[in-house]
Recover the amino acids of this structure.
């Protein structure tokens, strides 16, 4: 499939056929990933899993960026994703450091152990 | 009396057009005044600050008094210098000394989009006249007070002189301000100082009540004054005298042409509002009730503020804005009738009182009524002259009474004092009192009071439609002579007798040690007074000096009244050179003499020239008053308590009692105004308690209640927060999507 | 691209300072380690000076001129950031490794580079400030995202390491996880904006929205971006973390949090709103339902949807912050809630935008926000500096305990006048009492909102200011009242760091001084808020003129 066909398809709306992956598919996938990440973040108590859920949300945005970039035939989206990955890596290192710090204090990974501050 | 006809009559009395135009031009083209004029208000302000510092550093000496006297004397000198400068500038000139930009605000470039009220001083001859006696008398009275208040050396002394200086500063702002806003500032300032000084003996309930009464009654007048000033700005687009006078022109032109109907109603309303303000400050009906009570303050205060200066502010206001008053059909007639009735009423009350200071207070109210009448009968010269002479002799009368009060432990009842002038050391007081009484009674030819009163009476009879006022004033003149000499014959001459007052030491009712040089009188604090061991202490040098100077000044006040240069007597030329000019019988007489007043010939007194006739008539009336007082209160009197007058009282029946009770005016006010207000205020208090407070409580309670209901959201759990955030985002986004699609 | 560096001198200065601080912090010599604070202060100060002197206006550089619609905001914002950062740095003295450094000085233990955190703390501080300045510079969503993350990431660590207590850890973990979620939200929003426009350049986005209308996708992206950034400014519904984090962190770090992420958030929101609205044009064809709900005055507002959303957020933020602050007895929690409320006030300015009367300070909402950021930064630094400068004798964990409740502040004006009076002044200023700085900060918000006709919002603002007065007065009067005789607990002493007290005094002086001489700053804020309309931008962004279809052709 050439660039031209894809962009033409995209511009003329969503194709009826499920065989072709269009922008809409990618966006829906990314949205699903985002929501799954969010739900995981809200439901899980394990700090590591929670962090992974935020990573999922970041990567959902990444997928959307790449898809949109492809749609617009613009490389900015992909560039953005590289930066997002970098930031995600930085966050990961911080998250792990923080989790280790917390684990040392309470020998637990549960977020529920930390609710001294309230009101 | 048809009001429109009055206006048209006045129109005939207006000076020839070129004269008025010339006056307007003088008013518009002001030159820069001398910088020294600014010292007149600033020095009292400096004195105020220094006295405040004295209080801060707890000075326990007479330093504040000397500071005040020095500053006020310097201020007087500044006024004299300013006056000389003004004379050099020529008659009728106006100078403006700007001090700093106070309010100078524009919100557009068009006319009317600019509000300017700067701290600038409008100096014309009227200003100078007022400032001369204000600062001069203030200096003398401060000197008097340095001795009079000596029992209170310390904080009270500082407080007294600070308020005294602040008063002079405020009065100077009032008189010298070049705009109505600055006048209002001074107006409120003198009101405040009056309040502070009436309530000087703040531990005495009656003094506190009197201070509050003065303050509240004055507020009523001030409200109207403020409204008048606002209206002035609305209509003329300025509050500066020069601008206002320049813009009064078209209306004056209408008046001159007899097109009275075309003068805008709003212009006619302004003087009515200003007038009520003047009534409040100058204690005229119906707002005079505060002044007699104000005598609770220390006597120097009564002399300066409540006799000589502050209470004449109303006269000044009307004189200053005289062109406005000429434009109203009703303002000046109302001023005249209110003044006349006040004069008569206060005189009748004064006749029946026994407290000599109160008698003087009522006489002040009465004489202020005279001044208002003078203004109303187009005799602003007479009014100003009476203000001027009255300031001296009334201040002197008060100071004499104060000396008596000081020496006799607060005794003011004329039934308990007699022959004071013949006691050792009281000669000066007696002479001063005699001079003051002669002036107040209008003793013919030799007293200044006689001449100034004559001017007003003559103008009243000379002005068409005002004869009735003249008759009332003539009657009042007789009553005045009677009650004045009643005091003199009862207290100062006759058999020597006294009963000390209930204050061991005059005013010493808030517990200061007062054993300052009077210890030899055999009475001490806390020691019940008894007649046997009480010795009156005669006034010291300061009081005698001041009384002496004033006695001379009271006589000398004739000089500016009677002599002068080419433009007539000095005082008349000073008034004529100011905004109080325009009309005036003097001007109209000149016009009359020139054959100008055909068809508008002013009235006469039974065919005689009113002024010449009055010289005789009022002199005779004054004589009769004094004679009656002599017969009833001196001739054959052997005790202090009783005189022949007492036997005459039953003949007057309830009238005498009613006069003694001040015609029950306070009681009527209480019934008609205070009581209903009290009821209403109680109703409002209930509303306040149950409705407003409830609302306020609710307002205080509601945020807390909301807070308490929200507080569980801050449960401290990470997931709770996350759900809150995600939920919030979801809800907002969903709402947006639902609303828009 | 070398012209682009002209924008970056302050950041470069900060970066150099950061590197130097990190290296010097590993020195075995105590004096060298101690100098890190001075170097950091020099860094922020020189960044402020450089911002003032070198940052060009957007109009000055044609070729690569950053974002164009709020171009003058950049130098103003960066100068303000540098100045307040210097003030905040003064409060940071001795925050971490206090006991360790004391032991090393006493010779009890030897220096261990692995365990030393002090220099890192300063480095994080500087990194965060660098990120904040880069936020102001941003002309691209990628840049903005990176800058926001650079601002936030160090603050997570700063919170966690600011105290050794469990509360600090808890605050850190809450802040980090919720922050990551917020970041994901605005990142997703950025992605959607990119999807709608096809560009991440803010100028191009502005032109595209202004000429082509705002698609639903784009508006959704804008909404998500702003909601995500609401985390940074602690606005409803992203405010929950604020009180816990402020309470858990050391006071000086709380003060830092109240200024730095908030400023980053507001700068970003201004940039995004500027690109989306204020002078958007409703195109004749293809009107998106999301772009407008009801007809609104062209060229003066945000798109109606965004305006309403921000309206609700602003009203809720003020109210929630104030009513919860009312119930607090803990000083830091109260200040945290009030910081939420202050964000709500500032959002009013965002809603109003440059307004109809953009050339007057009183009618310009953006200028109001920019000035409020400055005044809030100063007052807030003062209050937290006072809290940081006070402590109690060490508790069981060996760390000096903090000031907890309002009653702890009682009698402060007598016992420590140099701390008590700044507290009083700054609280009164936060309350908005004339003639202090806070009043002049709040006034333009009111006037701008009134001019824009946002009367209901002004009423909410007024009511909230009244509620705020309740607790701020309580806080302001506490130092003035006398200590109760039965006061228990250890006496409160001044922390052994003079710079913290100095920061309090300087803040109070600024609160008074800037209010007196604030006209210049207001004029600065006004010119900083000068807003270029999309038409003018279009002529200066050549590539934006090309429609996406043409670019497809060009790509072939």
């Amino acid at each position: 499939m050439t660039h031209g066909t894809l962009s033409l398809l995209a511009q003329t709306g969503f194709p009826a056929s499920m065989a072709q992956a269009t922008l809409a598919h990618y966006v829906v996938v990314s949205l699903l990933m985002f929501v799954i990440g969010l739900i995981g973040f809200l439901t899980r108590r394990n700090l590591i899993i929670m962090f992974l859920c935020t990573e999922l949300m970041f990567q959902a945005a990444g997928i959307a960026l790449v898809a949109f970039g492809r749609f617009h035939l613009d490389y900015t989206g992909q560039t953005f994703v590289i930066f997002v990955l970098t930031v995600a890596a930085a966050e990961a290192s911080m998250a792990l450091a923080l989790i280790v710090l917390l684990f040392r204090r309470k020998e637990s990974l549960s977020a529920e152990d930390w609710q001294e501050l309230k009101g | 009396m048809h009001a429109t006809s009055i206006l048209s009559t006045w129109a005939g009395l207006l000076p020839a057009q070129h004269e008025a135009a010339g006056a307007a031009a003088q008013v518009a083209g002001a030159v820069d005044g001398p910088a020294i004029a600014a010292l007149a208000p600033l020095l009292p302000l400096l004195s105020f600050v220094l006295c405040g510092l004295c209080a801060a550093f707890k000075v326990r000496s007479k330093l504040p008094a000397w500071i005040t006297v020095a500053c006020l004397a310097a201020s007087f000198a500044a006024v004299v210098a300013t006056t000389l400068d003004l004379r050099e500038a020529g008659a009728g000139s106006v100078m403006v000394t700007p001090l700093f930009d106070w309010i100078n605000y524009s919100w557009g470039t068009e006319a009317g989009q600019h509000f300017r009220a700067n701290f600038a001083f409008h100096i014309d001859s009227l200003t100078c006249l007022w400032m001369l006696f204000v600062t001069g008398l203030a200096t003398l009275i401060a000197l008097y007070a340095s001795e009079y208040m000596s029992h209170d050396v310390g904080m009270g002394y500082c407080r007294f002189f600070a308020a005294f200086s602040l008063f002079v500063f405020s009065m100077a702002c009032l008189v010298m301000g070049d705009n109505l806003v600055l006048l209002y500032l001074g107006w409120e300032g003198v009101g405040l100082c009056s309040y502070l000084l009436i309530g000087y003996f703040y531990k005495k309930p009656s003094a506190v009540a009197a201070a509050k009464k003065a303050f509240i009654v004055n507020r009523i007048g001030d409200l109207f004054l403020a409204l008048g000033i606002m209206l002035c700005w609305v209509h003329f687009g300025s509050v500066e005298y020069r601008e206002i006078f320049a813009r009064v022109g078209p209306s004056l032109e209408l008046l001159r042409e007899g097109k009275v109907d075309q003068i805008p109603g709003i212009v006619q309303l302004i003087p009515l509002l200003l007038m009520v303000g003047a009534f409040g400050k100058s204690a005229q009906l119906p707002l005079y009730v505060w002044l007699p009570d104000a005598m609770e303050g220390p006597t120097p205060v009564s002399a300066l503020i409540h006799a000589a200066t502050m209470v004449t502010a109303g006269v000044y206001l009307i004189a200053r804005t005289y062109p406005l008053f000429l434009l109203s059909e009703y303002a000046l007639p109302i001023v005249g009738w209110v003044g006349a009735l006040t004069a008569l009423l206060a005189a009748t009350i004064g006749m029946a009182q026994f407290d000599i200071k109160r008698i003087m207070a009522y006489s002040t109210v009465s004489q202020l009524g005279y001044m208002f009448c003078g203004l109303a009968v187009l005799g602003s010269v007479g009014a100003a002259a009476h203000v001027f002479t009255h300031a001296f002799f009334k201040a002197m009368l008060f100071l004499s009474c104060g000396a008596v009060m000081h020496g006799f432990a607060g005794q003011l009842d004329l039934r308990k004092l007699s022959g004071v002038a013949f006691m050792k050391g009281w000669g000066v007081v007696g002479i001063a009192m005699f001079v003051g009484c002669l002036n107040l009674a209008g003793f013919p030819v030799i007293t200044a009071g006689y001449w100034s009163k004559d001017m007003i009476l003559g103008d009243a009879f000379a002005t068409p439609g005002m004869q009735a006022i003249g008759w009332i004033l003539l009657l009042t003149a007789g009553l005045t002579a009677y009650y004045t000499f009643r005091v003199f014959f009862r207290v100062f001459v006759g058999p020597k007798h006294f009963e000390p007052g209930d204050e061991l030491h005059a005013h010493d009712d808030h517990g200061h040690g007062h054993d300052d040089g009077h210890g030899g009188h055999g009475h001490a604090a806390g020691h019940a007074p008894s007649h046997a061991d009480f010795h009156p202490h005669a006034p010291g040098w300061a009081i005698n000096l001041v009384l002496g100077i004033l006695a001379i000044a009271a006589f000398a006040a004739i000089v500016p009244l009677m002599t002068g240069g080419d433009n007539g007597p000095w005082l008349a030329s000073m008034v004529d050179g100011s905004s109080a000019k325009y009309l005036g019988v003097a001007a109209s007489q000149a016009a009359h003499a020139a054959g100008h007043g055909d068809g508008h010939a002013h009235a006469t007194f039974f065919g005689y020239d009113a002024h010449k006739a009055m010289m005789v008539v009022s002199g005779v009336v004054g004589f009769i008053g004094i004679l009656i007082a002599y017969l009833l209160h001196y001739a054959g009197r052997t005790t202090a308590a009783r005189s022949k007058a007492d036997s005459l009282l039953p003949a007057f029946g309830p009238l005498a009692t009613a006069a003694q009770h001040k015609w029950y005016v306070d009681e009527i006010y209480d019934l008609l105004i205070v009581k209903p207000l009290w009821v209403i205020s109680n109703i409002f208090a209930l509303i306040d308690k149950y409705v407003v407070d409830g609302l306020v409580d609710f307002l205080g309670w509601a945020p807390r209640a909301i807070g308490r209901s929200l507080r569980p959201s801050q449960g401290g759990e990470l997931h709770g927060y996350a759900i809150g955030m995600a939920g919030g985002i979801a809800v907002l986004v969903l709402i947006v999507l639902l609303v828009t699609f | 691209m070398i012209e682009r560096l002209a924008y970056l001198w302050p950041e470069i200065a900060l970066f150099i300072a950061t590197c130097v601080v990190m290296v010097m912090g590993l020195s075995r010599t105590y004096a060298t380690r101690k100098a890190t604070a001075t170097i950091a202060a020099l860094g922020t100060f020189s960044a402020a000076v450089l911002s003032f002197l070198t940052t060009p206006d957007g109009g000055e550089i044609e070729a690569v001129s950053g974002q164009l619609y709020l171009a003058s905001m950049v130098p103003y914002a960066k100068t303000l950031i540098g100045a307040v950062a210097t003030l905040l740095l003064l409060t940071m003295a001795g925050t971490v490794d206090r006991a360790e450094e004391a032991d090393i000085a006493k010779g009890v233990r030897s220096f261990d580079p692995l365990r030393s955190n002090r220099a890192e703390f300063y480095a994080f501080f500087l990194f965060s400030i660098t990120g904040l300045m880069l936020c102001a510079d941003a002309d691209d969503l990628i840049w903005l995202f990176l800058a926001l993350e650079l601002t936030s990431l160090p603050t997570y660590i700063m919170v966690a390491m600011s105290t050794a207590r469990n509360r600090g850890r808890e605050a850190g973990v809450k802040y980090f996880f919720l922050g990551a979620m917020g970041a994901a939200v605005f990142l997703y929003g950025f992605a959607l904006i990119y999807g709608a426009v096809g560009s991440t350049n803010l100028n191009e986005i502005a032109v595209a929205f202004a000429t082509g209308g705002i698609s639903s996708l784009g508006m959704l992206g804008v909404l998500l971006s702003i909601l995500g950034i609401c985390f940074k400014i602690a606005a409803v519904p992203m405010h929950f973390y604020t009180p816990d984090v402020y309470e858990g962190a050391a006071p000086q770090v709380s003060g830092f949090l109240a200024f730095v992420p908030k400023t980053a958030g507001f700068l970003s929101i201004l940039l995004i709103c500027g690109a989306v609205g204020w002078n958007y044009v409703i195109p004749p064809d293809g009107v998106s339902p999301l772009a407008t709900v009801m007809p609104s005055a062209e060229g003066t507002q945000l798109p109606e949807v965004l305006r309403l959303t921000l309206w609700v957020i602003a009203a809720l933020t003020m109210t929630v912050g104030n009513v919860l602050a009312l119930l607090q007895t803990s000083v830091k929690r109260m200040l945290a809630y009030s910081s939420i409320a202050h964000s709500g006030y500032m959002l009013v300015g965002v809603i109003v935008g440059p307004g109809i009367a953009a050339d007057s300070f009183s009618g310009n909402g953006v200028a109001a926000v920019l000035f409020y950021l400055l005044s809030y930064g100063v007052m807030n630094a003062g209050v937290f500096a006072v809290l940081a400068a006070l402590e109690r004798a060490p508790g069981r964990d060996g760390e000096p305990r903090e000031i907890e409740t309002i009653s702890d502040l009682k009698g402060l004006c007598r016992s420590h006048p140099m701390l008590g009076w700044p507290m009083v002044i700054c609280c009164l200023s936060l309350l908005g009492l004339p003639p202090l700085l806070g009043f002049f900060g709040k006034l333009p918000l009111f006037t701008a909102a009134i001019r824009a006709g946002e009367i209901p919002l002004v009423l909410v603002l007024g009511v909230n200011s009244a509620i705020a007065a309740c607790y701020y007065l309580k806080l302001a009067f506490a130092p003035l009242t006398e200590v109760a005789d039965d006061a228990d607990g250890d006496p409160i002493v001044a922390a052994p760091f003079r710079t913290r007290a100095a920061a309090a005094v300087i803040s109070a002086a600024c609160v008074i001084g800037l209010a007196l001489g604030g006209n210049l700053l207001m004029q600065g804020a006004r010119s900083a808020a000068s807003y270029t309309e999309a038409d003018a931008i279009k002529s200066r962004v050549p590539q934006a003129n090309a429609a996406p279809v043409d670019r497809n052709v060009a790509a072939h």
